[in-house]
Every structure is written in structure tokens, then in C-alpha cells.
Write a structure and sequence with these properties.
The complex is a heterodimer. Chain A contains two helices and two strands, in the order H-E-E-H. Chain A is an alpha+beta fold. Chain A folds into two domains: 35 residues, no CATH class; 35 residues. In chain A, strand 1 and strand 2 form a beta hairpin. Chain B has one domain: START domain (Alpha-D-Glucose-1,6-Bisphosphate, Chain A, domain 4), CATH 3.30.530. The radius of gyration of chain B is 17 Å and the shape is globular. Chain B starts with 11 loop residues before the first strand and ends with a helix. Classes of the chains: A alpha+beta, B alpha+beta.
């Protein structure tokens, strides 16, 4: 990868707050964060959990009312 | 994003297009009963969650519905919409809007299919833009967090720590 290409990658990651950079003399140091990929995945996991729980309750209701003439 | 666990009752999530997401699950019950449980105003509060009550449910094409969650508390919130197509026992198309500053309503298509003695349920939500779809997933995530205060707390601590 070219230096220019690398700089573009870093800039995109920095704008998305996945990477922070600090310029020290002629060197630019890169750090992970502040945002972490785990946080993004966590939101999706929480949504998945909510829908899972709702459909579990729906399934439980069907099991519970089995045999009733609805 | 598609996750298919081994169990026949696992919930599958997918994004069929840039504007949709779909949730699917199979139940060991006949299609008529699944339809009834999904649309009966007396049964909806038993599975919807968030202490939901049915304020209005006029189940016919052109009718409308409105559910209130956590009524009488500071977390009270309402969702409502119109029935665009009501075709028991296998197809229901409705608009779904969160009342308040949560953006435009989206369209939900609920499809039931007989699978042996059971029923496959697919709920496809379609949005005007990808951004709206993703923000609704995030909103749902926040609601989901209500049932998991510890996880939310841990997450907020991590975010604050940066």
C-alpha cells in the first residue's frame, strides 16, 4: 500500500473515531479508539436480544394456549 | 448480516436489501393459531413486552392500530400504524410508526407459511432510506437494553472511559 493510500485509510478511521492520531515531530502516532467496534456490535446484539425475547414470549404463549379453541 | 443457529426455533436476522431488515422464526403451531396470537388484542399484551396495552386494533385493510408501552409511567411510549393489507392467515402488511421524534413510519410485511405441522414467520421491515433502517435498529437496541440494565451500565461505563 502506498503512503498516500495509508494516509487515506487512517483519515477515514479517524473520522469514524476508530483511530486517534497525535503528531510528534515528523512522526504521526496512531491509537485505537475512542470508539470500538465492540460497541457497534453490542447495539446489534441488544436489538437481537430484544427481538429474541419478544418472539420467545410469543412462542410461550402459543405453547400455553395449545388446545384452546381460538 | 445473517445468523442461523442450529435450533429450528432460532431467530434469524437478515438484511435482504439496503432498505430492509427481516426477522424469521419457526413455531410448532398451526398457521391459524399463530395468526390469531399475532393479531388478537387480548393476546398481544402477553408477548409484546414493555407492559404494552392495546389502545386500538381495527384488523381490516384500511383499519388502524395503536399500542402503548409502559402506560402511566415516565417511559410511556406509543407505536401505531395502518393496516395496508389483512389476508388471514398468511399475510399482514402494516405501517409502523413510533410516536414522537423517531422519524417516519416504515412498512412491515408479516408473512406466515405452513411448514409441516408448524408455521414459519417472517417479518420484513422496509424503510425509505438505509439510515432510517439503521436508526430503528439502534432504537430497538436501546429498548432492549431496558431488560438488561447491567449490560447497559457496563457499556455506558466503557463509552465514558473512551
Amino acid at each position: 500500500m502506498s503512503l498516500t493510500g495509508m494516509k487515506k485509510h487512517v483519515r477515514v478511521l479517524e473520522e469514524a473515531q476508530h483511530v486517534s492520531t497525535v503528531k510528534v515531530g515528523r512522526t504521526r502516532l496512531c491509537y485505537r479508539g475512542p470508539r470500538r467496534l465492540d460497541d457497534v456490535r453490542e447495539w446489534v446484539d441488544l436489538y437481537r436480544q430484544m427481538v429474541n425475547e419478544q418472539l420467545d414470549r410469543f412462542g410461550d404463549l402459543l405453547d400455553r394456549t395449545k388446545g384452546e379453541s381460538r | 448480516m445473517t445468523v442461523d443457529e442450529k435450533s429450528p426455533h432460532a431467530v434469524s436476522f437478515s438484511k435482504p436489501s439496503d432498505l430492509e431488515f427481516r426477522v424469521e422464526r419457526t413455531f410448532d403451531h398451526p398457521i391459524e393459531r399463530v395468526w390469531a396470537a399475532y393479531t388478537d388484542p387480548a393476546l398481544i399484551p402477553q408477548w409484546w413486552g414493555q407492559g404494552t396495552t392495546v389502545d386500538r386494533l381495527d384488523l381490516r385493510t384500511g383499519g388502524s392500530w395503536r399500542f402503548v408501552s409502559n402506560p402511566g409511567t415516565d417511559k410511556e411510549a406509543a407505536v401505531s400504524g395502518d393496516y395496508l393489507e389483512v389476508s388471514p392467515p398468511d399475510r399482514l402488511v402494516q405501517t409502523f410508526g413510533m410516536e414522537g421524534p423517531y422519524g417516519r413510519p416504515f412498512t412491515q410485511t408479516i408473512e406466515l407459511t405452513r411448514v409441516g405441522d408448524g408455521t414459519h414467520l417472517a417479518i420484513t421491515s422496509r424503510f425509505d432510506t438505509t439510515q432510517e433502517r439503521d436508526s430503528v435498529v439502534a432504537y430497538g437496541a436501546q429498548k432492549g437494553a431496558i431488560g438488561g440494565w447491567l449490560r447497559l451500565d457496563a457499556m455506558l461505563k466503557r463509552l465514558a472511559a473512551g
